[in-house]
Amino acid sequence: MATIFKRTSVLTDVPFHYCPGCGHGIVHRMVAEVIEELGIRNKTAGVAPVGCAVFAYNYFDVDMYEAAHGRAPAVATGYKRVHPENIVFTYQGDGDLASIGTAEIVQAAHRGEKITTIFINNAIYGMTGGQMAPTTLVGQKTTTSPLGRSKEHCGEPIRMAEMLATINGAAYIERTALNSTANIIRTKAAIKKAFETQIAGKGFSMVEVLSPCPTNWGKSPAESMDWIAENMIPYYPLGVMKEA
Amino acid sequence: MVKVIVLADQCKGCGLCVRACPKSVLAISKSHLNVKGYYPAEVVDQEACVACTACARTCPDVAIEIEK
Ligand SMILES: Cc1ncc(C[n+]2csc(CCOP(=O)(O)OP(=O)(O)O)c2C)c(N)n1
Ligand code: SF4
Ligand code: SF4
Ligand code: SF4
Predict the structure, then answer these.
(1) What's the domain count of chain B?
(2) Which positions in chain B touch A15 (Cβ < 8 Å)?
(3) Cβ(A101)–Cβ(A76) below 8 Å
(4) Residue B39's domain spans which residues?
(5) Which of A55, A103, A115, A227 is most buried (most C-beta within 10 Å)?
(6) Ligand 3 pocket check: which of B3, B5, B17, B50 to mutate, most ligand atoms within 8 Å of Cβ?
(7) Which residue of A has its CA nearest to B62?
(8) Is it the case that residue A128 has pLDDT exceeding 90?
(9) Contact at 8 Å (CB) between B68 and A1?
(10) In this structure, which ligand is nearest to the CA of A94?
């Protein structure tokens, strides 16, 4: 018998601390597999965010940094400019990337930094207990929008992939989701494309992944996947937003 | 012959593999508690497995291995 599916060695043996059904683990696995498949393990570094993925540095068996909240693209920029022949990725949530770190991600794309960002959009602040994020949907209940996000009070959710795609320095931008096996497979293909964009030296690359947070959404893991399909994808369309 | 292996003590009983499997090979245990205190997924119909890997790709805790 041959093994046809097994944990990649680019993940350490440390068990993920994430809640049952959390999307972070699915994406970690695929990022690690892509690093293995592209044969870039010995020249890749990652930058972990502040958010539930703060311990990502324990899970990837490559060099890892921990950045201050939202500053992962700035740390990755420094690494890449000192080691231009190496590969670097940031792994960031929507509070990290689309709120406190908006300036860093926009300016990294604007400078055309040859870095890759994996952006987990779960429409909420997970780690701190389910507060509203810039990506929270209108009407979505969170601990800081108990009656549902109000458009009048908080505006409408920000579409980071579309926004960054308008920037010339961005070479590859795609949005994917984790709600079905097909979409999980597409997500991995997008992650690979993003890393290949960096390897080719084309510019900034990002994959935005619509990902479940069952705990703070107050839903079962299965219901959360359905919620992505029914509520997130209609507002956050999937697909390639930019390919230079 | 396909063999789906659930690494029970790594599983968090989220049920996403059960949802993803097109052949109803997997189910959440009703009796066995793992070391983490979750009811893990278990193989209930090995014969039906078509080795599509959907369960393993969906598992957030990389708790499934497949042999063929
Ligand atoms: C400078 C600073 N401000 C605020 C916080 C509190 N904080 C920690 S995580 C977080 C938001 C995390 O949300 P997100 O980036 O969406 O990641 P998730 O936990 O959902 O994966 C906040 C506001 C902090 N740690 N540091
Ligand atoms: S709080 Fe949400 S994002 Fe954080 S680990 Fe739990 S499910 Fe995942
Ligand atoms: S490999 Fe496919 S058929 Fe077999 S248990 Fe997993 S999802 Fe079901
Ligand atoms: S998807 Fe993984 S963690 Fe969830 S029940 Fe199945 S084996 Fe367990």
Answers:
(1) 1
(2) 10, 61
(3) no
(4) 3-67
(5) A115
(6) B50
(7) A7
(8) yes
(9) yes
(10) 1
Residue A44 and residue A90 in contact, taking contact as beta carbons nearer than 8 Å: no
Distance to chain B for A30, nearest Cα, Å: 9
CATH number of domain containing A214: 3.40.50.970
The Cβ of residue A204 has, within 10 Å, a number of other Cβ atoms equal to: 29
Chain segment A83-125, per-residue pLDDT in tens:
999 999 999 999 999 999 999 999 999 999 999 999 999 999 9
Model-level ipTM above the cut of 0.90: yes
- Is B57–A185 a contact, with Cβ atoms under 8 angstroms apart? yes
Task: State which residue of chain A sits closest to B56, comparing Cα positions.
Answer: A5
Amino acid of residue A70: G
Q: How far apart are CA A51 and CA A53, in angstroms?
A: 5
Whole-number pLDDT of residue A241 = 98
B15-47: pLDDT as tens digits: 999 999 999 999 999 999 999 999 999 999 999
Which two tokens mark A193?
A: 């494309």
Provide, as residue numbers in chain B, all residues whose Cβ is less than 8 Å from the Cβ of A24: 60
CATH value at residue B10 = 3.30.70.20
The predicted pLDDT at position B1 comes to: 85
Task: Give which of A27, A181, A187 to mutate to test B binding, by max B Cβ within 10 Å.
Answer: A181
Task: Please give the residue range of the domain that contains residue A199.
Answer: 24-243
Q: What's the rounded Cα separation, in Å, for the pair A105 and A95?
A: 12
* pLDDT digit string, tens, across residues A35-87: 999 999 999 999 999 999 999 999 999 999 999 999 999 999 999 999 999 99
Cβ within 8 Å, pair A5-B65: yes
The total of structural domains in chain A comes to 1
